[in-house]
Amino acid sequence: VGQNAIGLALNTHSASCVYSHENQMNSVRDWVCYAAPITDANTGQFYGIMNLSTKYQKHNSLGILAVERCADIVKQAIQLHQKNILYIKALGTPKVQYNQHGLTLTQRQIEILCILALCPEGINLEELHYALYGDRPVSTTTLKAELSQLRNLIPDVIESRPYRLNCEIQCDFLMAEQALNLGFTATTLTLYRGSFLAKSESPFLCAWRDCFDARLSHVIYQIDDVDQLLRVVSRVPDRVDAVERLLELLPEETPYRAKLLKLLE
């Protein structure tokens, strides 16, 4: 077709526009085309060309900006698809996924991942050992074995010196904490599906759990929305503070008041 925006963008590696009279073929003389390369700025990998075309009467100087923006959106979508993502659910029944595939992990391995998620800057072996075991007589060799098994399950995710996660992480407990920090009570309660690693004896994780529970309890005792509290109790019946707050708000003649009282027994 002769000179065209797609070819120019491919050759120049930059956004290009070919106006109607610049087209060599008569059949496309009444068209204007905008094209931009889709390229990874970090690796230089070329994915393709984004092209927008319209009749020359609708030509707009913002066409170049539009096609560049479209190319950026596609590039971001490709990079997101290629990115390694570790998802940790630790509120309620623990669950871990890597790139949307479920992992069968031990309690200790989940604890290690949670500690590393809470220490994004990294942590050395001795600090990790104490955070996980405290003063219990467990050798560092045992911890190294746990780390080795984790690395076999999720290769290239755990760095050493210091130990840290080098992939994107999505954790329900971190999202709940962030929502709590921002005062988004409804979001916090939606994310809250149970106590944070209820069976964990890790001193580091127990301290985080106690602090989070104390802050959450403070918020719950200030809630005036009965429906919101009922949703919490329906998901987490052992949330005593939510039950107590409901009993404070509900009138004495409420038919299910007796059921709430049983939860406190």
Task: Tell me about this structure.
- By secondary structure, the protein is α+β, with helices and mostly antiparallel strands.
- It folds into 3 domains: 5-82, GAF domain (Beta-Lactamase), CATH 3.30.450; 85-170, Arc Repressor Mutant, subunit A (Orthogonal Bundle), CATH 1.10.10.10; 173-263.
- The protein has helices spanning 5-12, 63-82, 107-118, 125-133, 140-153, 172-181, 185-191, 203-220, 226-235, 240-249, 257-263, and strands at residues 16-18, 31-39, 46-55, 85-89, 95-98, 101-103, 158-159, 164-165, 168-171.
- The strands form 3 sheets. It has a 4-stranded mixed β-sheet. Strands 1-2-3 form a 3-stranded antiparallel β-sheet, with helices on both faces.
- The protein is flat, with a radius of gyration of 28 Å.
- The mean pLDDT is 90.
Q: Briefly note the structural class of the backbone.
A: alpha+beta
Number of structurally distinct domains: 3
Low-confidence stretches: none
Could you state the order of secondary-structure elements as H and E? HEEEHEEEHHHEEEHHHHHH
The proportion of residues forming helix, as a percent range, comes to 40-55%
- The proportion of residues in beta strands is 15-25%
Major sheet summary line? 4 strands, mixed
Number of helices: 11
Order the strands across the largest sheet as they lie in space: 6-5-4-9
Mean pLDDT, all residues: 90
Radius of gyration: 28 Å
How far apart are the first and last residues' alpha carbons, in Å?
81 Å
Count every beta strand, where a strand is a DSSP E run of 2 or more residues: 9
Write down the overall geometry.
Answer: flat
Organism: Acinetobacter baumannii
InterPro entries: GAF-like_dom_sf, WH-like_DNA-bd_sf
Keywords: Transcription, Transcription regulation
Protein name: Transcriptional regulator
